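Why does residue order matter? Because the sequence determines the fold. Keep that principle in mind as you read this record.
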Amino acid sequence: MDNIKKVVLAYSGGLDTSVILKWLKETYNCEVVTFTADLGQDEDFNSVQLKAEQQDTKEIFIEDLKEEFVSDYVFPMFRANPLYEGYYLLGTSIARPLIAKKQIEIANKVNADAVSHGATGKGNDQIRFELGYYYHKPDIKIISPWREWDLTSRTSLVEYADKHGIEIAKDKRGEQPFSIDENILHSSAEGKVLEDPNQEAPEYVYSRSVSPYDAPDKPEELSIEFKSGDACSVNNITMSPFKILKKLNELGGKHGVGRIDLVENRYIGMKSRGVYETPGGTILYHAHRAIESLTLDKEAAHLKDSASPKYAELIYNGYWFSPERDMLQSMIDQSQKNVEGTVNLKLYKGNVIVTGRQSDKSLYNLDLATFESDNIYSQKDSEGFIKLNALRLRDKK
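Structure:
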């Protein structure tokens, strides 16, 4: 790490990265460039810029990546119906590859020697960021302060900030009971009050959805149209990918949709408890599965379902840019060519209820499926089918 003159820092303006900004300058005697990604989170970016300026930062990049994030990362991921360990819709995981990619682009633009991030040495994000860095710039130098410094707790970070006159939000002075990550897809909360997995998460943890108990007593109906596996309109109004997800967040949050309390297995090797809110993504997940049920061939659908857990694991573990994820993505995208049509749903007290689906590419044949008489299917034929499949079960030698 000798001869580092300029570093690009993934900067949020929160406690960790505000301290890191000062620590990098002190430790490496280098210039620090800040990069903040606007992924649709509820953030005052003017305040973020001001905080960076207060530390005498000369180059500040705040990039609007909202549409790119949803169209090039979230939507391709959702074509796979990914759930990590059966529950998690990967809201934090899918944001990291784009941040890493843009951070390296800025590093190249400003001729930086290194990049830095605020992920801890206990978490998954350090892996996700750094695998992305190395993919886009194999010889890049990476500074991970949490693996280097002697600031071992949030309390020590607050003390460091006070010592150096770094302005931090009051709720970071021990009053904030949990750590939050946000983007347009989700909000996650971890730490402190949530560290006991047997303790119910208090209601103030949730930021983008009402409690299902307090949600409206009347269901809300909506429709989502899909083309090539991606949502393209909500309630017959065509929108951009970002605006679709934003609209679904509003509808889902109103009805308490998308809350998950999960104990997950981190890639680094430990279990972690997190509380996630993914209202729009939860609606999108159920709607996409509904239109696939109508338009995907049985064996193609089953093969795709068998690959989805592996796909989710790759994204969770930080391998978005890996050849194996590319291979799976090609298969998944191939399966989506005829996944189009409209799904009707109702939202009610935390539930997403599919009420109908229709498509010009539908494989559903009413003449075959009917319980009334038909001239296509002979029910006697099933006897031979059953006997053939029973051969190995009847032969017990």
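DSSP finds 13 helices and 14 strands in the chain.
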